[in-house]
Sequence to fold (121 residues):
Amino acid sequence: MEALYVFCVGILTFSGIFLCLRGRTFPVVLGLTLLSYAVNLFLFSSGRLRLDGAAILGTSESYTDPLPQALVLTAIVIGFAMIAFVVILAMRARADLGNDFVDGREPPDADQAIKPTRGKV
Fold:
């Protein structure tokens, strides 16, 4: 079970970093979201994975640490606020600049790829 958990966290981290390195804003927002999910899973795993552990002492023989659960809850709230801010920032940049590239400039070969050549061979 731990190997599958580590594999999922690794895939989320890799996908998030890959998407954050894209040139447009929407994949960057998705990458930040995936990275926040990976961090949440990592924080949650720091409390040890147990199936029947109780968070309250004295109710069972094995218990889980409630601190990672509180950290994950806080990270979810902060991550949601960060993603909302980045989305609003991307919408404002799209309105001001007229494109959705991260640096605000279109790549040099974008003119040739979008505009077809008419009458030229």
User: Anything to note?
Assistant: The chain has one domain: 2-105. The chain is about 65% helix and 0% strand.
